[in-house]
Design a protein that fits this description.
With 193 residues, the chain is α+β, with helices and mostly antiparallel strands. It has helices spanning 2-24, 162-192, and strands at residues 47-49, 53-57, 62-69, 74-76, 87-89, 93-95, 109-117, 121-131, 135-146. The protein has two domains: 2-27 and 165-192; 36-158, Immunoglobulins (Immunoglobulin-like, Sandwich), CATH 2.60.40. It has a five-stranded mixed beta sheet with strand order 2-9-8-4-6, with no helix packed on it. It has a four-stranded antiparallel beta sheet with strand order 1-3-7-5, with no helix packed on it. Helix 1 (2-24) runs antiparallel to helix 2. The longest helix has 31 residues, at 162-192. The radius of gyration is 24 Å and the shape is elongated. It starts with a helix and ends with a helix.
Length: 193
């Protein structure tokens, strides 16, 4: 009789692990360094606009007014995206209705972001906007930088792909749980015979 309770307990605990893994997959993480398109795959709904091309000089800051709308909750400009590492960026994450958002409407973000080019060359600034429901969109700004380099840029090691690891766990943990449940179910049926 105790063995029967142990089997049921194991099945219930396995189901709870599966439930917790599924619930954990719906959390937003605006501090991730991977591009938003890894998680926010429904593009085309949100709007994101700014200048499409800029001419700049090394060390001289310039301002882009970024506007995101149609339900936007975040605007992000992180290092590692496009050529963002070649710029010093004043605001890397702007949330709707935060201090830096000058648009009071919900789902609309307007922000002035200052970029300072660090090296000469043709660069691409990549900007993402994201919202719930896996909504996301990106915008690339082509920047031509001329002038003398004012700073030396050292490139560190590439960032760890935490989103990729988390995504892999989202598939393997439920699959492993399902396999364990099938094995225990088979053993429970086999013992009754």
């Amino acid at each position: 009789m105790k063995r029967n309770y142990a089997t049921k307990l194991i099945v219930v605990l396995s189901f709870l692990v599966l439930l917790i893994a599924a619930a954990g997959s719906v959390m937003a993480h605006p501090d991730y360094t991977a591009e938003c398109g890894d998680c926010h795959t429904n593009t085309g709904t949100l709007t994101l606009t700014t200048n499409s091309t800029v001419n700049a000089e090394t060390g001289d800051p310039f301002i882009l007014q970024i506007q995101a709308g149609n339900g936007a909750e975040y605007v992000a400009i992180k290092s590692g995206w496009g050529d963002n590492d070649y710029f010093r960026i004043s605001d890397t994450l702007i949330q709707d209705n935060s201090v830096n958002d000058t648009n009071a409407a919900v789902g609309e973000i307007t922000v002035d972001v200052t970029f300072t080019p660090l090296l000469n060359g043709s660069r691409t600034i990549r900007i993402w906007t994201a919202a719930t429901g896996l909504l996301g969109d990106s915008f690339d700004v082509a920047v031509t930088v001329t002038g003398e380099p004012s700073v030396t840029v050292t490139t560190g090691p590439p960032p760890v792909d935490l989103v990729g690891i988390w995504t892999m766990m989202l598939y393997t943990v439920p699959a492993a749980t399902a396999l364990i449940l099938v094995i225990f179910g088979y053993l429970a049926l086999r013992r009754k015979k």
